[in-house]
Amino acid sequence: MADITTTTAAVFIPELWSAETLRAQEAALVVAPLVKRYDSLVKGRGDTVHIPRVSNLTAQDKVANTDVTLQAITETEASISIDKWKETSFLVEDIVKVQSNYDLMAEYTSKAGYAIAQQIDTDLLALYTTFTNTAVGTYGTDMGDNEIVGAIQALDEANAPIEDRAMIIKPSQKAAIMKLDKFVRADYLGQYQNPTPVKRGPNNRYLWGEIYGVPVYYTTQIPVDGVGPDTHNMLIHKEAFALALQLAPRTQGTYWQRSLGWLVTVDSIYGMSGLRGDFGVEIKS
Asked: Average pLDDT over the chain, rounded to whole?
């Protein structure tokens, strides 16, 4: 018996392609807007930013018929080296541009811009190693209320302003916080009709909500290392890190006749450093 099957009739069955592409997932990039910026100072010139520190003075006893006590402090400085030049490039050959149903130039230009922004975010988060406060929490154990309160206390004792603080955590730690009754149960809060700190978020893709008045952001960009793995969540004030973006990510394209295609490059020049070590604290998990 000779049946007509999908195999024998394969030449008549079309394969369909979606008009839309499925782009690789992109992590939430949150840190650059949360830190001290020196972009305007380095636009078009310089390779180092020097930031003088100003110490506090102390109150002295005034003794009658004696001169005041003069105070002269030898000050130090913080500095930012503009030493990072990152680029992402690709080339689309003419035959691909002519025959493809998709605007690959636009697709990959967007991805190239994301790659540069992601690198800046990664470099900033790696500065948790400049913190001078004692870390709170334990590697391999979810953070909880004690760790959150302990991190806030560390910034309070460093006289970091309440304004411009931010907690940046791994998605797994957002899930851990959502399991804490005091943040989700209305009977704990005594306000059945009002949103809880968890229910209030997310306010946008980056800001999840607030806990104890501190904005909480979550991102897969949080540094992770070790066999645990060791996860380096953090609570920062704006002045914990400094970023100087000398050349904001720019896109350049040119026709490359040697390869018969369009060459596109996205690049950026920047520098960063830890600014105030006591204005940040690592929250281990």
From this structure: 85
